[in-house]
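INPUT
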Amino acid sequence: MSVAVVSPWIIGSGLLQVGLFLLGAPLLVGLMRTVRCRMEGRVGPPIRQPWRELRKLLLKSRSQPEHSTLVFAIAPVVLMATTLVVVWLTPLLSVRVTLSGGSDLFAIVFLLLLGSVSLSLAALDTGTAFGGMGSSRLMTIVALAEPALLVAILALAATVHSSSLATIMLAALHHPIWLVTPQRLLSFSAFVVVVLAESGRLPVDNPATHLELTMIHEALILEYSGPDLALIKLAESIRLTFLLALLANLFFPWGVSFSASGISLLIGTFVLLAKVAVLGVVISAGEVAVAKLRLFRVPELLAGAFMLSILAVLSALVIA
Amino acid sequence: MTIVFAAMAISGTLGAFVASASTARHRALVSAFSSAAASGAALVLALYVIRTRHAVHLATTSVLPLGGVDLHLDPLGALFVAVTAVVAIGVAIFSIGYARQHELTRTAAAAFPIFVTSMLFVPSAWNVTTFVFVWEMMALSSLVLVLGEYRRGSSVRSAGLWYAVLTQGGAVVIVLGLAVLAQHSSGQDFTQIAQHTGLIAPWIRGVVFVLLFFAFASKAGAVPLHVWLPKAHAEAPSSVSALMSAAMVNLGIYGILRSANTLLGGGPTWWWTVVIVTGAVSAIYGSIHAATSTDLKRLLAYSTTDNIGLILIAVGTSGLLASSGHRTFAALALFAGLFHLVNHSIFKGTLFLSAGSIQYTTGTRNLDQLGGLFSRMPIASTIFAIGAVAISALPPLGGFVSEWLLLQSLLHGLSSSTTVSVILMPLSVAALALTGGLTAAAFVKAFGVGFLGLPRSSGAAAVKEPPRMMNIGAGALGVVCVVLGAAPMVVIGSLNGAVQAAQSGQLSGVTSRGVALAIRGAHGAFEPTFIALALVAALSMVGALRWALTRRVTPRRSPAWMCGREVQNSRMTYTATSFAEPLQRVFDDVVQPSRDIDVSHRSESRYFVDSVVFGSQDKDVFEGLAFRPLIRLVRETARRSRVIQNGSIHRYLSYGLVALVVILLVAR
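OUTPUT
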């Protein structure tokens, strides 16, 4: 019930969060790649490899397909901007970091959707068959993943009558028993499926593939090169890190700082890094064991997640 | 106040007369100007009512028979008048440009101001006679307008017939419902009716509610009475579809609110169950069809069904909460519904007008034949993009705010844990969430396939910007979309007034604190303005960074990657049909497309294929399920009853005599 107060502290610590994600996200991607390589018996590139790739891309020049328009040119900027706003607004290190209203989970979902939509439009703007293919597939997945995500959030929010991430985290910390209620477990499983789908991981999409007919995400960004591709890659890795951090904070909220002191913020930072790293390792370890689903089986997976999250809402109501 | 009401009526009817009498060159101008003048007067009146929160009243027994004219505009009606007026002004400007190509007939030029004026009067009609009169004026004039381009083919006539049957059927049921209420009251004034409905037996009240609800829902375009909507909206001239979809369907919602809340004084849980279930089915069904349609205006029409469904969910939730005593959250739910209604009117008006510009310049509304419009008509395309972002609930435009409010009202609706709400709320939440994702997919398809990429027909390749007036009309509504998203505070007062008038209470749904929207009685504040600002700041920062990185070299223009092929043309890219194919597969049971693949071989050998023709048409399940059998029944009855018609006049006269005798016997 607090009013927006834009103090230097709030803006500053929000920026700290943004800086942390900008620097750390590519490293998480590198870590996940390394884990997968090691488990498959390969050595793999060093963890800082994504940063090297970004540096290489930033030094190249831009190129744009013949018939494309302004949409193609600004899509990477929109994707990056929405990603940064989301990271800035969400309390991940400390509950006091951001504005009260900004930490609204529904708002976060729609901001992320804006990024996906702009990328999807840019793919259509290239006027190629691959662009259309990637765009159509992405929107199919988004159209089914977003409902599951919204309903899963609603199931969590129903218990505390608020969709603010800060309130949900506080309530969960004050009543640890809530962490294992049926609705939380159900909505957790829905959330995991959505995070995998939104960030293009197995079994929905294979981040390592470059075979056109099976891929979703690579088909979307096929025409991008140079600094634009760097922006997209960086934004994508931040989105993955952000979704993992959100998952961690929603379901395992321990360690988040509550005071405005520097020490607690430092602790919060390290705890978050550890949680995200653990989740990343678990996901990439899981990826070694599963195969990619056929595209037309993916909707079944997402519909399953949707039903799980509706069950979560129902059980939240029945228990209340 | 008399003067303003009179000014509205006079400018509407006078405009109609002058327009039908003037030459072809001036017709459109007179028609548009008189409609805009009536709307302007109505807007002033509505804003006055909204500001003072006092109803204005005007009654005279002289103009109409059976009780005379009774006008009474309260803040609820004023909201609908204001929305209609804003949309109508935009449409009027647009229609001046549109008439350059599609010359207005005398009938259409006369019907247009009458349609606008009657819509402006519906929310202020305060007795049964006045209401039925203006309602019928609205229905008939819109029917004339739907048939405006009847020369184009039989599909226009068929659409007109569907619309005529459903709208007149609805009107009959409305008259029936209101007549039952008036019969139980001391007069046919709405105030008198409202005082007496408490004494009516509950089952009669229930029957009246169901009658009025479905009659008004058919006007609003809710499933299963929506079948006229995709036909009429697609075939009508775009300015008319914009008015119908952005203003007329609202009046269906107005009718439901007015009859359920003001006249019947609220009702038991099962009423609202009916409303919520109808809304949820409409929302899901409409959004699935929108996501798979390839006809731009059909897509927009189905998305109207979808949005009306969302509004009905909010209205139903509000009634449900009010009937279980949660008045604060009932106000919130109604606020969310009305806010979405305002938003929907503005963005759907923008989108339909843009679709009109596209049809005007390219000559088609089939997305499969468009493409590449953004580089050829940037202004008109940008206006469509604004509407598309708003309807997809993306920040920072209006749809985002209303989607958030709808989610909040369902979230708080969950807290009233009665058995009914435990079942209904997850259903509503599922409908709301599903429509969100599908709408985004539908409009990425509409904008991405229709406006980006390569042109797929010669019509699309040769387009230029439409006439300036068309862009101004559509763009004006586009600007309102942006205002509603970035500064929703400006309409909070009028919405709260409407909520209080509808629920006859003092509670407001949402209050504003600075730039934040705050929900009464709950932890929840939301700063859409702040999010918009943050987005703009981030966009300019990242944009500046990118510019700094790439300014040394100008970007290369290179051919797109085509897998080693020699030629790349638009036939190889994705069309709207192929874009929607995965979703169509997922929702095969609902869409039930009829696919037609025709392979013809060369005469020399069967191994050489000459051509493959693929056709796909999406059918409306409800049309086949509910209406086709009904039509067959009517046809059959008509065929059988033809026996008594043999064409001789004295026989017909004797039928009249028999009928008169029967009536005298029964009525005695």
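end of record. The CA atoms of residues 410 and 429 of chain B lie 7 Å apart.
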